[in-house]
Amino acid sequence: MSAPAAAGRQLRRVAVASAVGTTIEWYDYFIYSTATALVFGKLFFTSLSPASGTLAAFATLGVGFLARPVGGILWGHFGDRVGRKAMLVLSLVLMGVATVGVGLLPTYSAIGVWAPVLLLVLRLLQGLSAGGEWGGAALMAVEHAPPGRRGRYGAFSQIGVPAGLILAQLMFFVLGRALTDAQFAAWGWRVPFLASIVLVGVGLVIRLRIEETPVFAQLRRAETRSRRPMVDVFRERPRAVLVASGSFVANTAIGYIFLAYLLSYGTSVLKIDRTTLLVVVIVGSVTWLAAILASAAWSDRVGRKPVYLSGSVLLVVWPIPFFLLVDTKAAVWLIVAVVVLNIGLGATYGPQSALFAELFEPRYRYSGASFSYAVGAVLGGAFAPLIAAQLQASTGTSLSVSLYLVAVALVSLVAVLFIPRSQPV
């Protein structure tokens, strides 16, 4: 095989590995979110009232986010010192172990208080894995990409989020159609978690076949790797950390309202059929995936900042119409609500891999990108479903949730305004 043909084959393999690997990682992450909205409050917090149990379940969802900056620092350090590929493999294994562990976990009725404690531990392990997964997958794609196409190839790591969500929702949709509510609560919810072991095996085979990135290989040959990556990040790129983290706050907060809170709100408050809501979420996720690909390609032509600005403005203006449409309970308006919302999410997520990579020097890029991503996720998404549920319960209106999301979106809009037009490459 000629050198150009071999390079092209490797590039395609990297794109597939980034997409498939992150899809599996986020499938694992999202089945936890979906199960949290549907059954965890009843199964693991039995001693609490239904409303309090739901809030406690959402709290475990948020606690997993708190481990993500730790994972970002840990994975980032070794990703900048040892290599991108090794960390990608380890993060996938850790996520798989934690997810299968949830599927095997006894409930409160079997082991009492140890059930929520162990659930919390496994969620923390998921958070550690997620903290390092994204940075490695993003850099694997971007650092292999040809000049002028970093956004397009970086999108392969981004589509893992909606693709993983689609896969998770399809799993729950099929189970919802095949099982009664009693069967689903008794054992059916475990199936998506246990199925993860097969998906992780597929992901490992793919990731073990890819090569290290040319950028890191050059750093290793030239012996210019950072000895203390996070220290160098804070010393040389503190503004980049603030801009990157802030730009992600709205995306992750509103994203988790869409993928976690909407199911809980729709079934418990609006009394919408669960299957209908799962279909709506799947439609929104397909829109999100398409918007990621389109916005990433667009960012290669016009720059990252204009694309981010368009998406950020949409996320500021849409939360109020979003809940007004959802509250109609009509399927057609539910679909309109989530489609428009996910166009905004896609525009503020598609170019992210390329943007974050371009904000940090290669020798500490894994640490800077991973830490910024994790901090933005904590500030935005960690407790967004919990805050939304509490606001709805205390005010009795979804308008309070809408105003909260507008405030969060304004934070990111300000951060986006400070994105530099020319970044390190």
Write a brief structural summary.
It is built from 21 helices and no strands.
Given the C-alpha coordinates, what overall shape results? globular
Beta content: under 5%
Biggest sheet layout = none
Give the ordered list of helices and strands: HHHHHHHHHHHHHHHHHHHHH
The low-pLDDT segments are none
Q: How does this structure look, described?
A:
Residues 14-424 form the Major facilitator superfamily (MFS) profile domain. There is one protein chain. It is built from 21 helices and no strands. It is an all-alpha fold. 83% of the residues lie in helices and 0% in strands.
Topology:
Elements lengths: L2 H42 L5 H17 L1 H14 L2 H21 L3 H4 L2 H29 L7 H9 L1 H19 L2 H8 L1 H18 L6 H9 L6 H8 L1 H32 L4 H29 L1 H14 L1 H8 L4 H17 L4 H8 L5 H17 L2 H12 L3 H19 L8
Protein name: Putative proline/betaine transporter
Subcellular location: Cell membrane
Family: Belongs to the major facilitator superfamily. Metabolite:H+ Symporter (MHS) family (TC 2.A.1.6) family.
Main attributes of the structure:
single chain, cell membrane, membrane, 425 residues, symporter activity, transmembrane, mainly alpha, 21 helices
